[in-house]
Amino acid sequence: MSAHALSLAETTFVVLDLETSGAAPSTGAAITEIGALKVRGGEIIGEFQSFVNPGHSLPDFITALTGITDSMLFDAPTISEILPTFFEFLGSHHETVLVAHNAPFDIGFLKAAAIETESAWPEFIVVDTVRIARSALGRDEVQDCKLSTLAEFFGASIEPNHRALDDARATVDVMHGIFERLGTFGVSTLGELTTFKRKRERKALD
């Protein structure tokens, strides 16, 4: 059976969040923290957290945003040391679906890290909670699809704070809230989730 035929309750998701030293790998920015939670059937069945030494000092604005300092990263593993362990945690791309809030950002950094470390990138199915939230929620419900906005809307157990594991936890709660909402649209399988699209109503101009 293909992964797309699995019900959302049967699917193994790894909800991940990265902290980084800047906006994009193309600018020389690198991963500074990885947080991930393995979830199936609404239960957290695994957890991964590690600082990553990016090989350069952090800009002041990143330290101000995340609270992560150079001294916290000094003894941390490099990406080449931690990536194999993280891939092991993720498991097979035939069984695991990756989830992230604004997934192109996180997946872009992970793919760049794979290239840098000469590791093959497994072709995971990726779910972006920003994209599905835009389809599942009306403009009259949330003003934007930032993680903090959605975490508050769905009553997440933790407030996002620009630390990888906490933000991954908030994303898990947001994901489950979105899944409940999608149930009202008849979405119950991974295939239906990845193809679901509903236009958000445009706000009428005053």
Q: Keywords for this structure?
A:
5-stranded mixed β-sheet, 18% strand, 206 residues
Task: Please give a structural write-up.
By secondary structure, this protein is an alpha/beta fold. Helices cover 38% and strands 18% of the residues. The protein is built from eight helices and five strands; from the N terminus they run E-E-E-H-H-H-E-H-E-H-H-H-H. The chain has a five-stranded mixed β-sheet with strand order 3-2-1-4-5. Helix 5 packs parallel to helix 7 and helix 6 crosses helix 7. The radius of gyration is 17 Å and the shape is globular. The model has no long low-confidence stretch (mean pLDDT 95).
Q: Globular, elongated, flat, extended or rod-shaped: what is the shape?
A: globular
- Strand coverage percent: 15-25%
**Percentage of residues assigned to helices:** 25-40%
Using the CA coordinates, give the radius of gyration.
Answer: 17 Å
Number of helices: 8
**How many distinct beta strands?**
5
Q: Could you spell the SSE succession in H and E letters?
A: EEEHHHEHEHHHH
- Low-pLDDT residue spans: none
User: By helix and strand content, what is the structural category?
Assistant: alpha/beta
Chain-averaged pLDDT: 95
- Sheet with the most strands, sense and barrel status: 5 strands, mixed
Roughly how many Å apart are the termini?
51 Å
How do the strands line up in the largest sheet?
Answer: 3-2-1-4-5
